[in-house]
Amino acid sequence: MPAFQPPEMTYEMVQKWMTEVHPVFRDPKPLWQKLWSDYNIMRVPVSNGADFFDNALAAAKQAKDYQDLEKILNVQYKERCCYLEDTMADIALLSLSLQTRFPSKAVRDAALKVGQSGSLDSLARFVYDVISGWKDWDDEGTAPQICSDDVDGGGADDDNAQDDTSEDGADPCAYENSFPSELNQSPKWKGQEGRWNGDTQRITPNR
Fold this sequence. Notes:
Layout: H1 11-20, H2 34-39, H3 49-62, H4 66-96, H5 105-117, H6 120-134, H7 148-152
Helix pairs in contact: 3-4, 4-5, 5-6
């Protein structure tokens, strides 16, 4: 399912819902419509306060009136939402790829849930678990040693599995304490580094 959208209800979910709830609630459609929007949606900022201020300031210098200002900010808002949706899709795809190295299967699954749902709960849990995990790592900043079976989710017979033997003989299970480099090299991310600090989103005021 696309991030930030209600999930598609599976056959199992429909059957479970219709057989376990009171007959008055058996129609599952309201669950993903009114109930979803009223009780599972929370308004959160798309940009941080500093970036929003800088962009709004530049837009206000360029706009002729409030209506013009809102038009400029609306275009900017839609662009940022599109990039967020693309980013979530990239995270999901990278999480599914066995070529993307993760410290453990649990981290891979958590990242996949973030990319698939885009839910604030999934993102908060992922960030919290990452921060909590750092407390258990040694002073040199190295991650716990995880073997390849935990990372790739399969054995050596997997067609997509990579050779765990490094050329320099180093421990193949000693992974770097960092997010996978592929995440920053995704096609949609190339050349977009400045978008998250507002550099490319800011409007150049008229001189």
